[in-house]
Design goal:
Layout (H helix, E strand, L loop, with lengths): L1 E2 L5 E2 L3 E8 L6 E6 L9 E9 L18 E9 L10 E2 L4 E5 L4 E3 L3 E2 L5 E7 L2 E3 L2 E2 L8 E7 L6 E6 L3 E13 L2 E15 L7 E2 L5 E4 L6 E8 L8 E8 L10 E3 L3 E4 L1 E8 L11 E9 L7 E11 L4 E8 L2 E7 L7 E10 L20 E6 L6 E4 L11 E10 L8 E5 L3 E4 L6 E9 L5 E8 L13 E9 L7 E8 L8 E8 L6 E11 L2 E11 L2 E7 L2 E7 L5 E10 L6 E7 L3 E5 L7 E10 L9 E4 L3 E3 L11 E7 L4 E7 L8 E9 L8 E7 L5 E4 L10 E9 L11 E3 L10 E2 L19 E9 L5 E5 L20 E12 L5 E12 L2
Parallel strand pairs: 8-17, 19-26, 57-61
Antiparallel strand pairs: 1-2, 1-5, 3-4, 5-6, 6-17, 7-10, 9-15, 11-16, 12-13, 14-15, 16-17, 18-20, 20-24, 21-23, 21-25, 22-24, 25-26, 27-28, 28-31, 29-30, 29-32, 32-33, 32-34, 35-36, 36-39, 37-38, 37-40, 40-41, 42-43, 43-46, 44-45, 44-47, 47-48, 47-49, 50-51, 51-54, 52-53, 52-55, 55-56, 58-59, ...
Length: 827
């Protein structure tokens, strides 16, 4: 009977009954049940089956397995937002055999028809909905028992006890990284005492194939079992999604490779365009020896990623301030739904590897646009706001976007060939953005740009205008107008420069944007712009060294940087290093001594007609190296004094790495569990290795935890020491006599002075007949010897009491401490 978790059940009759294996010489069958059920609407439904009994003798159940129910379930998500869904199909039977002290391998080899991602997890077998078998234990191994969450490969290395074992594997189904359902496989493994070895099998590697190209993808698979029984038959089989596809399915030749001691078979697959999908296909090859007692197997898992082909014949052409790309559609036309466009500055000569899909980030290419029309095979790149910049070589790749019928996750294909192009010098081009003076208020920057000497003056007649804008930081575009110029004729525009003053070049880099206009029908017409930032140096101090890094955003390429350092004798800056990357570490320095630097960048445009080299300077920056290595932690000990309500701390230091310690910080936490420490005090001096905590709050509770950290002269703080906690030492005693005679001496029954760390009490005083004459929760008691009920003075004599004392301990834990006694009233 199946349960659908919507209040409905169904009795389903077997439609397929087929013998599949013979473990322990007992026929094992696969039974298939088919039914149709209509759910009431969207929701998450658990479809489950329960049988009242499992097989007897399962050794990794502490309770008798024959009395434990067999239960499996699958989760179905009906959600219009995610589309139709097919549950994963488990292609390998959930039963197998192995030997003690021999490697055991298994793979459920699940296949998802929708191309959703699968994840495998070991879970306890179930006996009912949300009810794992409490007596379940993971099978015992001499080395390990592991399941690969991605491939589903189970490796048991090695079983140490013969018997029947049960495990369960949850196969989760993910779409766009969201779990949309799962299937639980309950599996039986039979381990026997045997001395045969597993057969050997050809190792196969994961691979990627281009759809529509590998018409005869094939692998030769060999198995061998000559070590133990060369006369035994051995055969090769394979399962996986490629074998059950409705079209272009894979096949083995021969279907079951068989031989005496050795066998061979060939895996062949025509990979058509309909097979492109995000998740890889999996194939499990299995070699099995036909031993009559225990047929052992060896598995090889293969992942096959089917990749969409690239767009073909990508070309580029430059016109005005944009570059146009053209390409031919990829060979898998019907599966392609669009294209991704990638761009970077300068050529890369990168070509995708066999399993490099799309354009990886390490190549420097950036996704700039998406075309969601497979028939649109051209793209005009105008760059960011204002267009592309002249003199810069722009390079491109295009990839196809694929989505086949019945799939719900698009996938990117291989990248096209690379194409590069650059604009003519028909716009101004920035050549300098160099710091002339470093100052917080009177800093100065020099900028220079080349005129657009190839501009078509007939199509774009004058007069012409420059507008110079400045902005803080590295962000292009916009800013504050700081300069402008004009000329009636293009030859009148010389290579132009401008010096910007009264800047804070210490705190900020500056980006300049030079916009270029002509006059069209009496109005200014924007033609384009050039922009770039100054070089900005940052320094991070470290122990006896300074780490220099710098940033710059310019249209040309800087190929070399020179590091200049101030000579303390002459006051001049000398070059100390050259580097092709924007970083340099100056070592062997003296902590606390100031050192000053600036950077010279050297670069060039990719095309002719521009000044070479292009040289710019950063601001000057100074810094002092400092010790960043924290001291070693100390070893802490604690002594509490309950009488004085103090905790005395002492610690040991390590001279090898605490020589520069100047103080110790004392941390306290009232809780042993949370360890949220707060700084309560500090002790100055390298050899001052103790601290007395006598805060007033300790009179309420001594309980709490301490840790100490060492701090050196650069205020590097060590990790906390070991944590030591102090608990309270509650004390509560009662006298055995008092004299309520009104003389002012010993008139009240009160606890002996000095009680401590008591939250409350539960005191009952009884007379000789067992009647309660007084009760209180107040630790002070203050009983004057009268009957609490009547108010009458009680007669002199002995009374019995029962007292429960509630003591305060660490983490505010209250414990009860009951005791009994007598008290005598003397009048």
């Amino acid at each position: 009977m199946l349960h659908f978790s919507d209040g409905d059940t169904a009795v389903v009759y077997r439609s397929i009954d087929q013998v599949i294996a013979k473990p322990q010489n007992i026929n094992t069958k696969i039974n298939v049940y088919v039914t149709t059920h209509t759910f009431p609407g969207p929701g998450t439904y658990i479809i489950s089956y329960i049988d009242p009994n499992r097989v007897a003798g399962i050794v990794n159940f502490a309770s008798p397995s024959v009395n434990i129910a067999f239960f499996v379930q699958t989760v179905l998500e009906i959600n219009p937002g995610i589309g139709y869904d097919n549950s994963p199909e488990i292609l390998e039977p959930p039963i197998d055999e192995g030997c003690v002290n021999h490697l055991f391998m298994y793979n459920p080899n699940a296949y998802d028809p929708d191309g959703d991602s699968l994840n495998y997890t070991l879970v306890p077998p179930m006996q009912d909905t949300n009810s794992p078998i409490p007596s379940y234990q993971t099978p015992w191994a001499s080395a390990s028992f592991k399941l690969d969450s991605v491939t589903g490969q189970l490796v048991w290395d090695n079983p140490i006890q013969a018997g029947i074992y049960n495990i369960a594997i949850r196969i989760g189904e993910y779409r766009n990284k969201v779990l949309i359902g799962y299937v639980i496989e309950d599996m039986q493994i039979i381990i026997e005492n045997c001395s045969i070895h597993n057969p050997t099998l050809t190792k196969v590697d994961d691979t990627c194939v281009e759809a529509g190209i590998y018409y005869n993808m094939s692998y030769n698979i060999h198995a061998n079992d000559t070590l133990d029984h060369p006369s035994d038959s051995i055969y090769i089989t394979a399962t996986g999604g490629p074998f059950i596809l409705p079209v272009d399915s894979a096949f083995m030749t021969p279907d079951t490779g068989r031989g005496l001691g050795a066998a061979a078979s060939t895996f062949t697959w025509f990979v058509g365009c309909d097979l492109i999908r995000k998740s890889p296909y999996s194939v499990v090859f299995k070699a099995t020896n036909d031993n009559p007692v225990t047929p052992l197997t060896t598995l090889e898992y293969m992942s096959i990623k089917v990749v969409g082909p690239p767009p073909l014949n990508l070309t580029s052409s430059a016109f005005n301030n944009s570059i146009t790309l053209n390409w031919n559609r990829p060979s898998c036309v019907k599966s392609c739904i669009g294209y991704f466009i990638y761009r970077k500055v300068d050529s890369s000569s990168w070509q995708h590897g066999n399993c490099e899909i799309g354009v990886p980030a390490y190549t420097g290419f950036v996704l700039i646009d998406t075309v969601l029309n497979p028939d649109s095979t051209s793209f005009n790149d105008k760059g960011n706001e204002g267009g592309l910049q002249p003199g810069v070589r722009y390079c491109y790749h295009v990839t196809g976007i694929y989505l086949n019928l019945g799939q719900y996750q698009f996938v990117e294909g291989y990248a096209s060939n690379e194409t590069c192009n650059e604009l003519e010098k028909d716009l101004p081009a920035l050549t300098h953005n160099s710091v002339l003076n470093t100052d917080v208020a009177k800093g100065a920057i020099f900028i220079n740009w080349a005129r657009p000497d190839t501009l078509n003056t007939v199509e774009y007649p004058g007069p012409y205008y420059y507008f110079v804008y400045r902005s803080e930081g590295f962000s292009p575009g916009g800013g504050v107008l700081v300069d402008s110029s004009s000329s009636a004729l293009l030859p009148g525009l010389s290579d132009t420069f401008f010096t910007d003053t009264n800047l804070n070049t210490v705190a900020n880099p500056y980006t300049y944007n030079i916009e270029f206009y002509n006059t069209f029908k009496g109005k200014k017409n924007y033609l384009g712009r050039t922009e770039g930032s100054s070089v900005y140096l940052s320094i991070r101090p470290a122990h006896r060294q300074l780490l220099l890094t710098w940033a710059v955003n310019v249209p040309w390429t800087n190929s070399l940087y020179i590091v200049y350092k101030q000579n303390k004798t002459t006051g001049l800056f000398d070059s100390v290093a050259t580097t092709t990357t924007p970083a340099y570490t100056d070592t062997g320095l003296t902590n606390g001594t100031e050192y000053c630097y600036y950077i010279k960048s050297i670069g060039a445009y990719f095309v002719e007609g521009f000044p070479k080299p292009i040289i710019n300077l950063s601001q000057q920056r100074c810094a002092k190296p400092k010790d960043t290595i924290p001291p070693c932690p100390v070893i802490l000990s604690l002594t509490k004094n309950c009488d004085s309500f103090t905790n005395f701390l002492s610690w040991q230091k390590f001279d090898s790495c605490t020589k520069e310690v100047i103080l110790y910080r004392i941390y306290f936490s009232p809780s042993e569990k949370e360890e949220k420490f707060i700084l309560i005090d500090s002790v100055t001096g390298l050899n001052n290795l103790s601290y007395l905590d006598n805060r007033q709050i300790l009179h309420t509770s001594l309980a709490g935890c301490y840790a100490v950290a060492a701090v050196d002269s650069y205020y590097n703080e060590s990790v906390l020491s070991n944590i030591i906690c102090s608990d309270n030492c509650p004390l509560y005693k009662l006298p055995n006599v008092f004299t309520p005679n009104g003389d002012g001496i010993n008139d009240l029954f009160v606890p002996i002075p000095g009680y401590r760390f008591i939250q409350s009490i539960d005191l009952r005083i009884l007379n000789r007949w067992g009647q309660v004459v007084f009760t209180t929760h107040d630790p002070e008691i203050n009983w004057d010897g009268t009957d609490q009920n009547s108010g009458a003075k009680l007669a002199a004599g002995t009374y019995y009491f029962i007292c429960v004392v509630y003591e305060i301990h660490l983490d505010n834990i209250i414990t009860d401490n009951p005791f009994e006694g007598t008290v005598t009233i003397i009048r």
